[in-house]
UniProtKB/TrEMBL annotation:
Protein name in UniProt: Agmatine deiminase
Region described as Disordered: spans on this chain: 1-65
A GO-annotated cellular component: endoplasmic reticulum
Cited InterPro entries: Agmatine_deiminase (IPR017754), Peptidyl-Arg-deiminase_porph (IPR007466)
Residue ranges with Basic and acidic residues bias: 46-64
Amino acid sequence: MQERSRQSFATEEETDMEAGSGADGIEKREYNVGEEEGLACCISGERSEKSRNGTDSSGRRAEDLPWVGATPSALGYRMPAEWEPHDGCWMGWPERPDNWRNNAAPAQAAFAAVAAAISQFEPVTVCASASQWSRAREMLPRHIRVLELSCNDSWFRDMGAMFVVKDNGGGEGGGGGGGGGGGVGTGKTRREIAGIDWNFNAWGGLYRDFSLDVLVAGKMLEVERILRFVNDMVLEGGSVHVDGEGTLITTEECLLNKNRNASMTREEIEGQLKAYLGVQKIIWLPRGLHGDVQTNGHVDNLACFARPGVVLLSWTDDVDDPQHAISVEALSVLSQSTDAKGRQLAVIKLHVPGPLHVTQDELQGLEAPTDDLDLSELFSADGRLAGSYVNFYVANGAIIAPSFGVPQDAAAEQVLKRAFPDRKVVMVPGREILLGGGNIHCITQQQPAACRQLVVHT
Protein backbone atom coordinates (compact mmCIF):
# COMPACT_ATOMS: atom_id res chain seq x y z
CA MET A 1 0.00 0.00 0.00
CA GLN A 2 1.29 3.44 -0.90
CA GLU A 3 1.73 5.63 2.17
CA ARG A 4 -0.62 8.63 2.22
CA SER A 5 1.03 12.02 2.40
CA ARG A 6 0.22 13.74 5.70
CA GLN A 7 2.47 16.78 5.16
CA SER A 8 1.05 19.70 7.11
CA PHE A 9 -1.27 17.72 9.35
CA ALA A 10 1.18 15.55 11.28
CA THR A 11 4.54 15.92 12.96
CA GLU A 12 7.58 14.28 11.44
CA GLU A 13 7.55 11.69 14.20
CA GLU A 14 3.89 10.84 13.61
CA THR A 15 4.49 10.41 9.89
CA ASP A 16 7.04 7.71 10.62
CA MET A 17 4.93 5.92 13.19
CA GLU A 18 1.79 3.86 12.71
CA ALA A 19 0.71 4.79 16.21
CA GLY A 20 1.94 7.25 18.79
CA SER A 21 0.89 9.64 21.50
CA GLY A 22 1.30 13.40 21.21
CA ALA A 23 1.99 15.89 23.96
CA ASP A 24 -1.73 16.59 24.18
CA GLY A 25 -2.34 13.01 25.30
CA ILE A 26 -4.21 12.02 22.14
CA GLU A 27 -3.11 8.72 20.71
CA LYS A 28 -2.73 9.12 16.96
CA ARG A 29 -3.39 5.98 14.95
CA GLU A 30 -4.54 5.13 11.45
CA TYR A 31 -6.89 2.27 10.76
CA ASN A 32 -6.60 0.54 7.40
CA VAL A 33 -9.26 -1.84 6.14
CA GLY A 34 -8.50 -4.02 3.13
CA GLU A 35 -5.41 -4.31 1.00
CA GLU A 36 -5.62 -1.38 -1.41
CA GLU A 37 -5.83 2.28 -0.57
CA GLY A 38 -9.20 3.85 -1.34
CA LEU A 39 -11.12 7.03 -0.70
CA ALA A 40 -12.90 8.36 2.33
CA CYS A 41 -16.24 6.64 2.40
CA CYS A 42 -19.63 8.31 2.23
CA ILE A 43 -21.77 6.52 4.78
CA SER A 44 -25.01 8.45 4.75
CA GLY A 45 -26.96 10.75 2.47
CA GLU A 46 -27.56 10.73 -1.27
CA ARG A 47 -26.53 14.17 -2.51
CA SER A 48 -23.08 13.78 -4.05
CA GLU A 49 -22.36 12.17 -7.40
CA LYS A 50 -20.54 9.35 -5.63
CA SER A 51 -23.35 8.62 -3.22
CA ARG A 52 -26.40 9.41 -5.34
CA ASN A 53 -26.79 5.82 -6.49
CA GLY A 54 -26.11 4.41 -3.04
CA THR A 55 -22.48 3.44 -3.63
CA ASP A 56 -19.20 4.55 -2.12
CA SER A 57 -16.12 5.63 -4.06
CA SER A 58 -15.06 2.04 -4.71
CA GLY A 59 -18.45 1.03 -6.11
CA ARG A 60 -19.58 -0.94 -3.06
CA ARG A 61 -23.24 -0.42 -2.25
CA ALA A 62 -23.91 1.72 0.81
CA GLU A 63 -26.00 -0.96 2.51
CA ASP A 64 -22.92 -3.21 2.56
CA LEU A 65 -20.98 -0.75 4.70
CA PRO A 66 -20.92 -1.33 8.45
CA TRP A 67 -22.07 2.15 9.53
CA VAL A 68 -24.96 2.76 7.14
CA GLY A 69 -28.01 4.28 8.77
CA ALA A 70 -26.10 5.43 11.85
CA THR A 71 -25.64 9.12 12.54
CA PRO A 72 -22.40 10.58 13.91
CA SER A 73 -24.01 11.15 17.31
CA ALA A 74 -25.23 7.55 17.48
CA LEU A 75 -21.67 6.42 16.79
CA GLY A 76 -20.28 8.60 19.59
CA TYR A 77 -19.06 11.58 17.56
CA ARG A 78 -19.44 15.21 18.65
CA MET A 79 -18.36 18.53 17.25
CA PRO A 80 -15.45 19.75 19.40
CA ALA A 81 -15.07 23.30 20.62
CA GLU A 82 -12.76 25.44 18.51
CA TRP A 83 -10.30 25.79 21.39
CA GLU A 84 -9.63 22.04 21.48
CA PRO A 85 -6.31 21.00 19.85
CA HIS A 86 -6.02 21.23 16.06
CA ASP A 87 -4.06 19.26 13.51
CA GLY A 88 -4.29 22.28 11.26
CA CYS A 89 -6.35 24.90 9.47
CA TRP A 90 -7.94 24.93 6.00
CA MET A 91 -8.39 28.06 3.90
CA GLY A 92 -9.40 28.94 0.36
CA TRP A 93 -7.92 31.52 -2.00
CA PRO A 94 -10.03 34.47 -3.24
CA GLU A 95 -10.29 35.23 -6.94
CA ARG A 96 -13.83 36.03 -8.13
CA PRO A 97 -13.81 39.70 -9.23
CA ASP A 98 -17.50 40.32 -8.48
CA ASN A 99 -16.90 39.63 -4.78
CA TRP A 100 -13.30 40.78 -4.33
CA ARG A 101 -12.31 44.19 -5.63
CA ASN A 102 -9.42 44.93 -8.00
CA ASN A 103 -9.27 41.35 -9.27
CA ALA A 104 -8.98 40.11 -5.68
CA ALA A 105 -5.41 41.38 -5.27
CA PRO A 106 -6.07 43.21 -1.95
CA ALA A 107 -8.05 40.25 -0.62
CA GLN A 108 -5.29 37.83 -1.58
CA ALA A 109 -2.81 39.87 0.42
CA ALA A 110 -5.23 39.82 3.38
CA PHE A 111 -5.76 36.06 3.14
CA ALA A 112 -2.00 35.54 2.94
CA ALA A 113 -1.51 37.61 6.11
CA VAL A 114 -4.13 35.56 7.96
CA ALA A 115 -2.60 32.28 6.78
CA ALA A 116 0.88 33.41 7.81
CA ALA A 117 -0.35 34.44 11.26
CA ILE A 118 -2.13 31.13 11.88
CA SER A 119 0.83 29.14 10.55
CA GLN A 120 2.95 30.38 13.46
CA PHE A 121 0.77 28.24 15.72
CA GLU A 122 -0.46 25.32 13.59
CA PRO A 123 -0.15 23.90 10.06
CA VAL A 124 -2.16 25.65 7.35
CA THR A 125 -3.41 24.34 4.02
CA VAL A 126 -4.58 26.85 1.39
CA CYS A 127 -6.68 25.59 -1.52
CA ALA A 128 -6.43 27.49 -4.80
CA SER A 129 -7.78 26.93 -8.30
CA ALA A 130 -5.49 25.80 -11.11
CA SER A 131 -5.25 29.33 -12.49
CA GLN A 132 -4.37 30.77 -9.07
CA TRP A 133 -2.14 28.05 -7.61
CA SER A 134 1.15 29.65 -8.72
CA ARG A 135 0.16 33.06 -7.37
CA ALA A 136 -0.92 31.59 -4.04
CA ARG A 137 2.30 29.61 -3.79
CA GLU A 138 4.32 32.75 -4.51
CA MET A 139 2.50 34.88 -1.93
CA LEU A 140 2.43 32.35 0.91
CA PRO A 141 5.29 31.22 3.18
CA ARG A 142 6.92 27.98 2.06
CA HIS A 143 5.85 26.08 5.18
CA ILE A 144 2.19 26.55 4.22
CA ARG A 145 0.77 23.73 2.10
CA VAL A 146 -0.93 24.91 -1.11
CA LEU A 147 -3.32 22.50 -2.82
CA GLU A 148 -4.91 22.81 -6.23
CA LEU A 149 -8.62 22.57 -5.44
CA SER A 150 -11.21 24.42 -7.48
CA CYS A 151 -13.87 26.58 -5.79
CA ASN A 152 -16.33 29.23 -6.87
CA ASP A 153 -15.37 31.30 -3.83
CA SER A 154 -13.17 31.05 -0.76
CA TRP A 155 -15.35 30.87 2.38
CA PHE A 156 -14.09 27.57 3.78
CA ARG A 157 -15.96 27.97 7.05
CA ASP A 158 -19.23 27.68 5.16
CA MET A 159 -18.47 25.33 2.28
CA GLY A 160 -15.77 23.20 3.89
CA ALA A 161 -16.17 19.99 5.85
CA MET A 162 -17.35 20.29 9.44
CA PHE A 163 -15.32 17.94 11.64
CA VAL A 164 -16.54 15.76 14.50
CA VAL A 165 -14.51 13.60 16.88
CA LYS A 166 -14.98 10.54 19.03
CA ASP A 167 -12.96 10.14 22.23
CA ASN A 168 -12.12 6.63 23.37
CA GLY A 169 -10.71 6.42 26.90
CA GLY A 170 -8.72 8.88 28.99
CA GLY A 171 -11.56 11.09 30.15
CA GLU A 172 -14.07 13.37 28.51
CA GLY A 173 -13.38 15.96 25.84
CA GLY A 174 -14.39 19.58 26.15
CA GLY A 175 -12.53 21.52 28.81
CA GLY A 176 -11.77 25.19 29.13
CA GLY A 177 -11.00 27.64 26.40
CA GLY A 178 -8.09 29.38 28.05
CA GLY A 179 -5.25 26.93 27.53
CA GLY A 180 -3.46 26.40 24.28
CA GLY A 181 -4.10 22.68 24.22
CA GLY A 182 -6.85 22.09 26.75
CA GLY A 183 -10.00 20.16 26.27
CA VAL A 184 -8.83 16.58 25.78
CA GLY A 185 -9.09 15.25 29.31
CA THR A 186 -6.38 13.47 31.24
CA GLY A 187 -4.54 10.31 30.41
CA LYS A 188 -4.21 8.80 26.94
CA THR A 189 -7.19 9.49 24.70
CA ARG A 190 -7.54 7.95 21.28
CA ARG A 191 -9.55 10.49 19.34
CA GLU A 192 -11.06 9.49 16.02
CA ILE A 193 -12.19 12.03 13.45
CA ALA A 194 -14.92 12.15 10.82
CA GLY A 195 -16.27 14.89 8.58
CA ILE A 196 -19.76 16.18 7.85
CA ASP A 197 -20.49 17.14 4.25
CA TRP A 198 -23.58 19.33 4.58
CA ASN A 199 -25.45 20.60 1.57
CA PHE A 200 -24.51 24.09 0.38
CA ASN A 201 -26.55 26.52 -1.72
CA ALA A 202 -24.42 29.69 -1.67
CA TRP A 203 -26.17 31.37 1.27
CA GLY A 204 -29.67 30.80 0.01
CA GLY A 205 -28.85 31.31 -3.66
CA LEU A 206 -26.93 34.57 -3.31
CA TYR A 207 -24.75 33.35 -6.18
CA ARG A 208 -26.25 31.28 -8.98
CA ASP A 209 -23.25 29.07 -9.64
CA PHE A 210 -21.89 27.18 -6.65
CA SER A 211 -21.24 23.91 -8.47
CA LEU A 212 -17.60 23.81 -7.35
CA ASP A 213 -18.21 25.00 -3.79
CA VAL A 214 -20.65 22.17 -3.09
CA LEU A 215 -17.84 19.67 -3.77
CA VAL A 216 -15.25 21.25 -1.47
CA ALA A 217 -16.13 19.38 1.74
CA GLY A 218 -15.96 16.00 0.06
CA LYS A 219 -12.64 16.85 -1.58
CA MET A 220 -11.13 17.90 1.76
CA LEU A 221 -12.11 14.59 3.32
CA GLU A 222 -10.74 12.62 0.39
CA VAL A 223 -7.41 14.46 0.58
CA GLU A 224 -7.14 13.56 4.26
CA ARG A 225 -8.75 10.09 3.90
CA ILE A 226 -11.28 10.94 6.60
CA LEU A 227 -14.60 9.21 7.15
CA ARG A 228 -17.38 11.23 5.49
CA PHE A 229 -21.00 11.67 6.54
CA VAL A 230 -23.31 13.33 4.00
CA ASN A 231 -26.36 15.35 5.02
CA ASP A 232 -28.73 16.99 2.54
CA MET A 233 -29.70 19.77 4.95
CA VAL A 234 -28.19 23.12 3.98
CA LEU A 235 -25.86 24.30 6.73
CA GLU A 236 -22.91 26.69 6.74
CA GLY A 237 -20.20 26.47 9.37
CA GLY A 238 -20.55 30.14 10.24
CA SER A 239 -24.17 29.64 11.22
CA VAL A 240 -23.37 27.59 14.34
CA HIS A 241 -21.02 27.72 17.33
CA VAL A 242 -20.56 24.92 19.88
CA ASP A 243 -18.94 24.62 23.29
CA GLY A 244 -17.81 21.00 22.79
CA GLU A 245 -19.92 19.93 25.74
CA GLY A 246 -23.31 19.62 24.10
CA THR A 247 -24.42 23.23 23.56
CA LEU A 248 -24.91 25.00 20.22
CA ILE A 249 -25.87 28.60 19.51
CA THR A 250 -27.33 29.81 16.23
CA THR A 251 -29.70 32.43 14.83
CA GLU A 252 -33.30 32.11 13.72
CA GLU A 253 -32.62 34.66 10.99
CA CYS A 254 -30.31 32.24 9.21
CA LEU A 255 -31.28 28.67 10.02
CA LEU A 256 -35.03 29.27 9.81
CA ASN A 257 -34.73 31.33 6.63
CA LYS A 258 -36.79 29.75 3.85
CA ASN A 259 -33.91 30.20 1.41
CA ARG A 260 -32.03 27.39 3.19
CA ASN A 261 -34.32 24.51 4.15
CA ALA A 262 -37.82 25.62 3.22
CA SER A 263 -39.44 22.24 3.82
CA MET A 264 -37.96 21.71 7.29
CA THR A 265 -39.45 22.77 10.61
CA ARG A 266 -37.43 24.18 13.48
CA GLU A 267 -37.77 20.85 15.29
CA GLU A 268 -36.50 18.93 12.25
CA ILE A 269 -33.49 21.23 11.93
CA GLU A 270 -32.73 20.77 15.62
CA GLY A 271 -32.98 17.02 15.16
CA GLN A 272 -30.34 17.05 12.41
CA LEU A 273 -27.99 19.26 14.44
CA LYS A 274 -28.27 16.92 17.40
CA ALA A 275 -27.87 13.77 15.30
CA TYR A 276 -24.85 15.00 13.32
CA LEU A 277 -23.02 17.33 15.72
CA GLY A 278 -23.66 15.48 18.96
CA VAL A 279 -25.24 18.44 20.75
CA GLN A 280 -28.05 18.20 23.27
CA LYS A 281 -29.13 21.82 23.66
CA ILE A 282 -29.62 24.52 21.03
CA ILE A 283 -29.88 28.20 21.94
CA TRP A 284 -31.63 30.29 19.31
CA LEU A 285 -30.74 33.98 19.03
CA PRO A 286 -33.34 35.90 17.01
CA ARG A 287 -31.12 37.89 14.65
CA GLY A 288 -27.56 38.16 13.45
CA LEU A 289 -25.34 41.24 13.22
CA HIS A 290 -26.80 44.35 11.60
CA GLY A 291 -25.55 44.61 8.01
CA ASP A 292 -24.85 40.89 7.64
CA VAL A 293 -27.10 40.66 4.59
CA GLN A 294 -25.07 38.15 2.58
CA THR A 295 -25.29 35.33 5.11
CA ASN A 296 -28.69 36.26 6.59
CA GLY A 297 -27.20 36.76 10.03
CA HIS A 298 -24.56 34.13 10.70
CA VAL A 299 -23.97 33.69 14.41
CA ASP A 300 -20.17 33.87 14.01
CA ASN A 301 -20.46 37.63 13.53
CA LEU A 302 -22.64 38.05 16.60
CA ALA A 303 -21.64 35.63 19.35
CA CYS A 304 -19.34 32.73 20.16
CA PHE A 305 -18.25 30.65 23.12
CA ALA A 306 -15.05 31.74 24.88
CA ARG A 307 -15.19 28.62 27.05
CA PRO A 308 -18.00 26.43 28.37
CA GLY A 309 -20.57 28.64 30.07
CA VAL A 310 -19.13 31.92 28.73
CA VAL A 311 -20.22 33.70 25.53
CA LEU A 312 -18.65 36.67 23.75
CA LEU A 313 -21.34 38.97 22.32
CA SER A 314 -20.99 41.77 19.77
CA TRP A 315 -22.17 44.94 21.49
CA THR A 316 -22.72 48.67 21.15
CA ASP A 317 -23.80 51.20 23.77
CA ASP A 318 -25.22 53.52 21.10
CA VAL A 319 -29.00 53.22 21.44
CA ASP A 320 -29.43 54.88 18.04
CA ASP A 321 -27.39 52.18 16.31
CA PRO A 322 -29.62 49.42 14.85
CA GLN A 323 -27.12 46.94 16.27
CA HIS A 324 -28.04 47.97 19.82
CA ALA A 325 -31.52 46.42 19.70
CA ILE A 326 -30.09 43.22 18.19
CA SER A 327 -27.43 42.94 20.89
CA VAL A 328 -29.89 43.66 23.71
CA GLU A 329 -32.22 41.02 22.30
CA ALA A 330 -29.41 38.46 22.16
CA LEU A 331 -28.23 39.37 25.67
CA SER A 332 -31.72 38.77 27.00
CA VAL A 333 -31.81 35.27 25.50
CA LEU A 334 -28.30 34.35 26.62
CA SER A 335 -28.64 35.68 30.16
CA GLN A 336 -31.77 33.60 30.65
CA SER A 337 -30.25 30.43 29.18
CA THR A 338 -28.38 27.50 30.64
CA ASP A 339 -26.09 25.24 28.66
CA ALA A 340 -26.33 21.47 28.20
CA LYS A 341 -24.55 20.97 31.54
CA GLY A 342 -27.02 23.21 33.37
CA ARG A 343 -24.64 26.17 33.79
CA GLN A 344 -26.05 29.69 33.66
CA LEU A 345 -24.40 31.46 30.73
CA ALA A 346 -22.15 34.44 31.43
CA VAL A 347 -21.79 37.07 28.71
CA ILE A 348 -18.73 39.17 27.82
CA LYS A 349 -19.54 42.25 25.73
CA LEU A 350 -17.21 42.88 22.78
CA HIS A 351 -17.95 46.25 21.21
CA VAL A 352 -18.28 46.39 17.43
CA PRO A 353 -16.02 48.65 15.36
CA GLY A 354 -17.21 51.71 13.57
CA PRO A 355 -19.90 51.73 12.28
CA LEU A 356 -17.99 50.88 9.11
CA HIS A 357 -19.31 51.56 5.60
CA VAL A 358 -18.21 50.55 2.12
CA THR A 359 -16.76 53.45 0.11
CA GLN A 360 -17.52 54.37 -3.48
CA ASP A 361 -13.93 53.61 -4.47
CA GLU A 362 -14.24 50.14 -3.00
CA LEU A 363 -17.48 49.52 -4.89
CA GLN A 364 -15.93 50.67 -8.15
CA GLY A 365 -13.26 48.01 -7.78
CA LEU A 366 -15.85 45.25 -8.14
CA GLU A 367 -16.68 43.82 -11.54
CA ALA A 368 -20.29 43.48 -12.58
CA PRO A 369 -21.65 40.15 -11.36
CA THR A 370 -21.71 37.41 -13.97
CA ASP A 371 -24.81 35.54 -12.77
CA ASP A 372 -27.67 38.07 -12.44
CA LEU A 373 -26.52 39.14 -8.97
CA ASP A 374 -27.04 42.83 -8.26
CA LEU A 375 -24.30 44.48 -6.20
CA SER A 376 -27.02 45.89 -3.94
CA GLU A 377 -27.58 42.33 -2.69
CA LEU A 378 -24.06 42.28 -1.23
CA PHE A 379 -24.46 45.31 1.05
CA SER A 380 -27.11 46.75 3.33
CA ALA A 381 -29.11 49.72 2.05
CA ASP A 382 -26.95 52.21 3.96
CA GLY A 383 -23.68 50.54 2.95
CA ARG A 384 -23.06 49.37 6.52
CA LEU A 385 -20.50 46.57 6.75
CA ALA A 386 -20.94 43.72 9.21
CA GLY A 387 -17.79 44.55 11.15
CA SER A 388 -17.22 42.35 14.19
CA TYR A 389 -14.33 41.36 16.43
CA VAL A 390 -16.17 38.15 17.34
CA ASN A 391 -15.28 36.83 13.88
CA PHE A 392 -11.87 35.48 14.96
CA TYR A 393 -10.03 32.17 14.59
CA VAL A 394 -8.95 30.11 17.59
CA ALA A 395 -5.56 28.55 16.81
CA ASN A 396 -3.41 26.30 18.97
CA GLY A 397 -2.32 28.76 21.65
CA ALA A 398 -3.54 31.89 19.88
CA ILE A 399 -6.47 34.05 18.82
CA ILE A 400 -6.19 35.49 15.30
CA ALA A 401 -8.62 38.43 15.24
CA PRO A 402 -9.42 41.16 12.71
CA SER A 403 -8.44 44.79 13.10
CA PHE A 404 -10.00 47.64 11.13
CA GLY A 405 -7.74 50.64 11.68
CA VAL A 406 -10.20 52.26 14.09
CA PRO A 407 -9.94 53.26 17.77
CA GLN A 408 -12.02 50.27 18.90
CA ASP A 409 -9.25 47.88 17.79
CA ALA A 410 -7.21 48.40 20.96
CA ALA A 411 -10.16 47.88 23.29
CA ALA A 412 -11.20 44.72 21.44
CA GLU A 413 -7.69 43.31 21.75
CA GLN A 414 -7.77 43.82 25.51
CA VAL A 415 -11.17 42.12 25.84
CA LEU A 416 -9.88 39.13 23.88
CA LYS A 417 -6.75 38.94 26.03
CA ARG A 418 -8.87 38.83 29.17
CA ALA A 419 -11.22 36.25 27.66
CA PHE A 420 -8.32 34.01 26.56
CA PRO A 421 -5.55 34.69 29.12
CA ASP A 422 -3.41 31.72 28.09
CA ARG A 423 -3.46 32.49 24.37
CA LYS A 424 -1.56 35.07 22.37
CA VAL A 425 -3.89 37.55 20.66
CA VAL A 426 -2.74 38.47 17.15
CA MET A 427 -4.62 41.21 15.31
CA VAL A 428 -4.54 41.05 11.49
CA PRO A 429 -6.04 43.69 9.16
CA GLY A 430 -9.51 42.50 8.21
CA ARG A 431 -11.20 45.23 6.17
CA GLU A 432 -10.53 43.63 2.78
CA ILE A 433 -12.06 40.36 3.99
CA LEU A 434 -14.98 42.29 5.47
CA LEU A 435 -15.65 43.89 2.09
CA GLY A 436 -16.21 40.40 0.72
CA GLY A 437 -18.87 39.68 3.33
CA GLY A 438 -17.15 38.03 6.29
CA ASN A 439 -13.93 37.90 8.22
CA ILE A 440 -11.22 35.66 9.65
CA HIS A 441 -13.52 33.02 11.14
CA CYS A 442 -15.42 32.85 7.84
CA ILE A 443 -12.35 32.07 5.71
CA THR A 444 -10.91 29.37 7.98
CA GLN A 445 -11.89 25.86 9.06
CA GLN A 446 -10.06 24.04 11.83
CA GLN A 447 -9.25 20.34 11.60
CA PRO A 448 -9.29 18.88 15.13
CA ALA A 449 -6.36 16.84 16.37
CA ALA A 450 -7.23 13.17 16.02
CA CYS A 451 -6.25 9.95 14.37
CA ARG A 452 -7.52 9.51 10.83
CA GLN A 453 -9.76 6.51 10.55
CA LEU A 454 -9.05 5.47 6.99
CA VAL A 455 -11.81 3.79 5.04
CA VAL A 456 -10.12 1.60 2.47
CA HIS A 457 -11.89 -0.48 -0.15
CA THR A 458 -10.83 -3.52 -2.14
